């Protein structure tokens, strides 16, 4: 069995994540006005970018959360096998697609199709994450020896329910009212940043330990 | 004889690969409709993006395969000489060109010129890979001492036949029917992801050994 | 308490910074003239890009300064906690936004709204930097043991006053005359590159020490 | 005196170089034809992209050469001081500008202004390289102890004459005939790739020694 260099897979993935978050802003286009436009004209034109700004911030923070989850999983993995590599590649595929549904949401915020596409892509991305965890769990010698396998398994099952369920709910709520969908999508980063840290470190990450500057 | 730092060549190459896969999605442009477009309108407009979506997925996975091959070769190389560096640079040149034939295929899927350009670029990229392998093989001290040179040579000859031949076939089949070309192009990632791993690790990679987290 | 791998956070941040500085140039679009345009025509069309060129150079150098500050802070940090990670993420959020106000300034140089947005974004970015310093200071075990905490605290308070104040002043001066705003924005890199090095190394960075090639 | 982490400066620079070479292709836009365009139509439309293709290849290879030179210099440097960092930053500034003159050359190949801008930017980039070498030479303790200072000094003076002179000549020859300018610009990568390796390794790089996989 051959393995991939973990550091190169991390470097490639980090590169993709860094580019995605940075490309997202390219959707925010400077309004086209005449060059002698008044302050009020430019101000009003910028206000129209608000939906794009909101979907940009949500997507940016979601990619950061994906990065954190990616970091957490790879931190518990000792070897990158063929299967882990390709599940990681499919995860990157969904992630690199994020600029498209983000732009769609920015352009057609009130159209339920936007929420369906955005939530659907995120649900599939989330599902791939669970697949990556599962692949790491069931392959021999992939997880580091000090990882608590029972905990890792439980966290994998939870991730399967939590992510895809939440994003699908957001996607479907868009059919009722786009503000409900946006509320669900915005809740993910808010919850993750402010409430998730302590819980995760206790319940999900028994294999993690303090790392010093590598 | 001076050598290049292998880690910097890898970092540069990984950066280029990461950017290519992420830039590919920029070709998927959100359709321009009026802002009060109905769900059906937006849905239909998105369906028209299907050819672009298919060519995006194929190109994404092909770049991942290139990354895997690049990783495999560099893993067997001890030193990066002037010749290896520039063959690697030409490989990156073809790779960074991929967004163009991908966009061409997405825009003119049924036009044989698209398949010819896409398959032709991929064949040249594949040829450069074989050149890189050959340069590594024939230069003194480039391959790691534990690499089985007879196996490496055989794999190099096989890569010369397999890649360019396959891509040229796809390119030419586009003259008959674009679906035949797409089937060949899509077969490459499918074959590589689902059937290639075991075989490669036995037949092509005798010099590889398990790597732990670097 | 779990920590993040400092090297991966650095790699992710470096990737974002590298992409930002490089994307900035995409705003400089080649003028559209007929292909038989005379030398004078093309020269005049290029001259019109001067405001974009100036705002590009200023933004480029500002991102380099942000990189230097980021490097300085991370160099004094031993562990990346949840709090430090997310403050860093918000810093990257502001930074990845920079291409937008830069383009705005390039398009509407004389409109005070541009200076307000540019200066405002920079002030918020600068405020996030102070927040990151503060978080590093008040969290147990985040700063390296050899960092002089009194000096770090003083530098944090100074950064709180200096950055946001300076950028807000530039933003507001744009209401009087855009040249005043530009002068303030241009002064930041000039001051930082030519006068800041010696002072910083004595007053702000007592915890730093010579690093050899890692 | 404080120093920068050489590995982070390298990572940042490698990121910028990788993005530049990859962004260059974005200038190659797929032609807009009707979707039932014939093979001949598409073929003819693609032929019109030839000047852009040529300037793309030249710029791509030039950035690779810059990477090689950057690698060579940093390989001889032990510490990155404030001065070295900012000269490196200005080098990256010129490099990240390259997509603009490349696009200009692709759009207005026969207009002498394009050659002047392209050659001028390259000459300034080249001058910054010499400045970086000079700064490394004259600053105490920047060069590695095993670097032959007399050779390094001679190579610095030669780089001052060679690069800026060559690029200025190309720029000015564009006033006579654009093909002369293109010939000079194309000669640089051809010379560098096929003739420069042996000479450089003997005459310029006495401080270099074989590096194993880091």
TrEMBL record, chains A, B, C, D:
Which InterPro entries is this protein grouped with?
TMEM175-like
Keywords noted in UniProt? Ion channel, Ion transport, Membrane, Potassium, Potassium channel, Potassium transport, Transmembrane, Transmembrane helix, Transport
What is the protein's membrane topology class? Multi-pass membrane protein
**In which compartments does the protein localize?**
Membrane
Q: Write one Pfam family the protein is assigned to.
A: TMEM175
Q: Which reaction does it catalyse?
A: K(+)(in) = K(+)(out)
* Annotated Gene Ontology cellular component terms: membrane
Where does the UniProt entry say this protein principally localizes? membrane
Report TM segments.
Answer: 12-30, 42-68, 80-100, 112-134, 155-174, 180-198
Q: Name one GO molecular function term.
A: proton channel activity
Q: Which family does it belong to?
A: Belongs to the TMEM175 family.
Name of this protein: DUF1211 domain-containing protein
Organism field: Fibrella aquatilis
């Amino acid at each position: 069995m051959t393995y991939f260099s973990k550091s190169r897979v991390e470097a490639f993935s980090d590169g993709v994540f860094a580019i995605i978050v940075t490309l997202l802003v390219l959707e925010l286009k400077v309004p086209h006005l005449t060059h002698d436009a008044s302050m009020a004209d430019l101000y009003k034109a910028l206000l129209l970018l608000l939906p794009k700004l909101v979907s940009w911030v949500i997507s940016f923070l979601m990619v950061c959360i994906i990065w954190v989850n990616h970091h957490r999983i790879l931190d518990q993995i000792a070897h990158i096998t063929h299967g882990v590599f390709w599940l990681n590649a499919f995860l990157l595929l969904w992630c690199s697609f994020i600029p498209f549904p983000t732009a769609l949401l920015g352009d057609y915020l009130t159209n339920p199709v936007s929420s369906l596409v955005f939530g659907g892509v995120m649900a599939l991305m989330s599902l791939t994450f669970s697949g990556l965890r599962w692949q790491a769990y069931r392959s021999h010698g992939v997880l580091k020896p000090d990882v608590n396998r029972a905990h890792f398994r439980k966290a994998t099952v939870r991730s399967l329910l939590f992510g895809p369920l939440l994003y699908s709910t957001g996607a479907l709520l868009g059919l009722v009212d786009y503000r409900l969908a946006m509320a669900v999508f915005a809740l993910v980063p808010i919850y993750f940043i402010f409430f998730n840290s302590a819980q995760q470190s206790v319940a999900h990450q028994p294999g993690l330990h303090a790392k010093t500057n590598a």
